[in-house]
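Loading example: each entry is read as two labelled lines plus one structure line.
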Amino acid sequence: MEWTDEALVLGAAKHGESSVIVELLTRSHGRHKGLVRGGSGGRMRGVMQAGNRVAVTWRGRLAEHLGTATLELIDANAASVLSDPTRLLALASLCAVASTALPEREAHPEVFLGALPVIALLRDDATDITHIAAALVYWELGVLGALGYGLDLTSCAVTGQTDDLAYVSPRTGRAVSRAGAGEYAERLLKLPVLTDPTPDGMLAGFDLTGYFLERSIYVPNRMRLPPARDRFLALLRR
Amino acid sequence: MAAPVISPEIDGLIQLLAKLPGLGPRSARRATLHLLKKGPSAMEPLARALTEAARNIKPCGVCGNLDTVDPCHICTDPRRDPAILCVVEEVADLWALERAAYKGRYHILGGVLSALDGVGPDDLNIASLIDRASRPEVSEVILAMNATVDGQTTAHYITDRLKDAGVTVTSLAHGVPMGGELDYLDDGTLTTALRARRPF
């Protein structure tokens, strides 16, 4: 069988002397791997950098086979951020979360489509890192939602009001307003204002998504949040 | 049952050669036949060289280079500038830079940070690099990592770790190669070259 799709490269591991196994976040086929023959050669090495947007053709005798992939570069996203440590780590964090949180071969087009504007912001030198961080928090919330662990941030779980939402219940993932939190405020997770991001607010945002990613996806699968994400947050904290 | 066409000794040699990079079973058979044809005049020096290498070559305790002495010849060469330290991923990169007539000293990391392969800072020779760079005789550290996401992530991580070492941190330029024609360059190289443009 054969299909063509567009994808973001998540990583590539050497296989034998000249081939690589590339890991992709495709638009319609989810996180998918494929063998790229001659992929470790000079011409293809640049294409298979994490974050690059590619056109992929996958072929395999059976759908469950690893199959072979041929890639054609659409956007050299990695090259645009190589010189900026924060943007590079943000890109690495996005790719690492997609690579570890998403199940293989389960289509989540919204995760792929949600990653494109984040990468567009990363490539835009005029965008400050707080706005990039906000976009990344949004994307991680989208990952949680796509996997069935979405947070309900539309109204207060206690009072039902839709304004002054400041917290999230760590148990239910529902928003709680300042009035509704009352004496429980200390035990709730902070809900940042993503539409008007601040550096501290974005760190709270990553704490929020990190908590639910860890609880719902990583801990049940005996994994931990990717080190690339930790390094990005460490850089943001400074 | 018919006797095997190839004797176990020859087959063993083919199997061993086939494990080397660049050689598959077919080319290993060709190399074996070539050696057998040349006889002891080709095989014995090769066997001696391999035995010598296995017995004497070890990683340098200072920079990580492979040599018969520890510290290696590069680390003890008085003609080399001790003020400049060039950080590379592997020994192959050191050999490549030697072709560029670089006259400083080296530090070999032994790889790069990699999320996919699970390589963290503790798996690389970063602590010894910080220690070397903090010595008073070192004034510049050149980060000569590959222009890949993992290579540059490692370079930024080291830059961060070196901020208290009191050294100038530089990196190799990325862009148009010698003899390169713009029309044939990939998008990534062109993007990097444009971003790294300089007054002319």
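Chain B has a mean pLDDT of 91.
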